Amino acid sequence: MPESHIIAWDAGTWTNDPQTVTETDALEVTAIEGSDAWRHTAYGFVHDTEHALLAPLAVGEAMEVSFRAPWDGQFDQAGVFVRIDAEHWMKAGVEYADDHLGLGAVVTAGGSDWSVGHVDEWLESEITVRVSRWTDAVIVRARADDGPWRLVRVAPFDGTAAASAGPLLAAPTRAGFTVRFTRWTRSEADVDLH
Fold this sequence. Notes:
Layout: E1 5-6, E2 13-14, E3 20-23, E4 27-30, E5 37-39, E6 46-48, E7 51-56, E8 61-68, E9 76-85, E10 88-97, E11 100-109, E12 111-112, E13 115-118, E14 127-133, E15 137-144, E16 150-156, E17 164-170, E18 178-188
Antiparallel strand pairs: 1-18, 2-7, 3-4, 4-18, 5-6, 7-17, 8-14, 8-18, 9-10, 9-17, 10-11, 11-12, 11-13, 14-15, 15-16
Protein name: DUF1349 domain-containing protein
Pfam families: DUF1349 (PF07081)
């Protein structure tokens, strides 16, 4: 992976303020109950109440976010949010649903889609999600601890639009979900898919 540079927590702006934010050597963030990001598809509703700490992401750049959380609330989620505007965004990371931890992504262009696969073996791990922005796509990879990177998604994404990205959390069904974000970095985008 290319050389990375730490992004300061105060370099980002929240899409929606979390319940609490505590900065030590990490950033501990507690979500507001009912927070989520989704548009229309299958469920019919629109939620734009996620907590995402965003900084600019240019074509040719990548961002990585590392985190830990107690995965036990239905639809608890954390990862990376990449946003152009309210109708064009992507969230990628892990979500706890139906007693399983799932690794996946939601890509939204007017409506949202969702791809996910179980990674229950990651429940106790520090998880890192990496997004690389190409001229026509965002490439998502993830790993647990120092394990191998997994390709999660290749998603269409407008390279001509200004976009921002950064740490994400949401708690659609409960209060008290706290994520410990341990690292936020920027580097050059990955040049290969494989």
